[in-house]
Amino acid sequence: MWIVAVAWIYVVALMAATEPTVVHGVMTFLFYCALPLSILFYLTGSKRRRARREAQARREAATPAGDASAAALPAMAADKCGPDAGACDGSGAGD
Q1: Is the pTM of this model over 0.85?
Q2: Domain ranges of the chain
């Protein structure tokens, strides 16, 4: 996906460079490149945002309100090194 986006940015930048005025070039770049790619990346990122929200909700539901030590762990460490995960010495025994 990224290679296609980079190639599209390159093509549109070359198109914008051939416009007769700077204003035309900027408008070409904005309306043919920046706006469509921002919409595309927003739409394709919705699954990741939804999964991140659900994972955050699961972590909040699993963490007791009074347990400050588990709430202080970073998100990835909490997934791998939670109280029910077993050993968490980096050896992969709890995975």
Answers
A1: no
A2: 2-44, 47-63+70-80
